[in-house]
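Suppose a classmate hands you a notebook page containing two proteins, each written out with its sequence and a corresponding row of structure tokens. How would you begin to make sense of it? This section walks through that situation. The first entry is reproduced here exactly as it would appear on such a page.
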Amino acid sequence: ALNGYLDELSRIGCQFKGFEDGLVDFHAWLEGRPVLLCWKLGEDEIAWWHELDGGYAGRRPLTP
């Protein structure tokens, strides 16, 4: 069952980053360029983003 959920995330273009942090990245466009929206287990909403090559350490808030 769990593999089914992970497969579904992959099919819709999400990148599951692992169980330890419960981190998921979503492809999106921000100000005319491709970025990754970033959600972590325990966060109420998707409120962070980072550059395609930026990773978790480069997260920035969607709203300043």
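The notebook's second entry, a different protein, reads as follows.
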Amino acid sequence: MDGEVRFKFFFWYSFADDFENSYGGHYGPAFYRYFYEQNEAIKSGELSGLELELKTLGIGNGIIDAAIQFPFYADFAVNNTYGIQTLDEKWVDYMTTACYMTNGCLDQLWRCGQSYGEDTNSDTTRALCSQAASMCRDNVEGPYYSYSQRSMYDIRKASNQRPYPDFMVKYLNAPTTREALGVGVDFTYEDSSYDVYLAFQHSGDYAYPRFLQDLEFLLDRGTRILLVYGDADYIGNWFGGEAISLALNYTQSTFFRATPYKSLLSGEVESGKVREFGNLSFAVVHESGHLISVDKPGVALDLYNRAVWGRDLATGEKTLDEIMQIPLIPDLPSNIGHK
């Protein structure tokens, strides 16, 4: 996006609603926290510029925190919403062992986190975190890709099925689309790039532990956070997403954890379930894979509209103040589980 288009956009819009997907579980929290810190610098006079009102951050099937999410790959491969056993037990055992063994996935992620806390930009941190990401992705996440013959984005589909329409890449590279977005003629959109993947892999970013902390920071400062997961996705599965939502520690986390799930209604049809309290919502969308906007566009639009207009995700009929009723804390144990 060129500077003129960027200027025109921010000149007219002084608020920011950001909706990310997948690895956006890294981008979104990091960008939003950076924007908040820039707002504070503008308020103090340290910088001159336009403050952005950080209203809503939505993350679909987000990859947010490796140490929390990796333990759920083996479980989801055989105990998923659809009762599909995608792998033989020997591979599930292999994934579980690789996750928990000495010098395994979680051990290496812990060392990555320790080094990251001491120096985020050191060569040692990058090396440890890159090594941890490789170990976890190859041995805990990876057997599914090698042996299940199912899509990483939707366990109901074969591995050769794309999660998005074939015309998408052509549309994004069309001259009219480029002009509307302010994209230069020397840029060509690709649906994936191995070079970009390797650059991220070598950086160690996949294993960095900061993004959960960024979400906690934003929640305590009033930003509305939505974590939404399609129930058929493997790579960003909802078991790990639920664990992320319950691991968040912020001023209202106890009340959020104790809040029971409610049905997610879209056009009077039950389309999933939602746990929400205050400015945090966690939703699971039925019959949807990695891209909810492709599999369930009507539900995705309802969630978007409810979020940006400050309504509850479950029905769209309540304000945020109305979904802040204090739940009964003793109910907590019965609200957790993959049902």
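A careful reader of the second entry would note: The radius of gyration is 20 Å.
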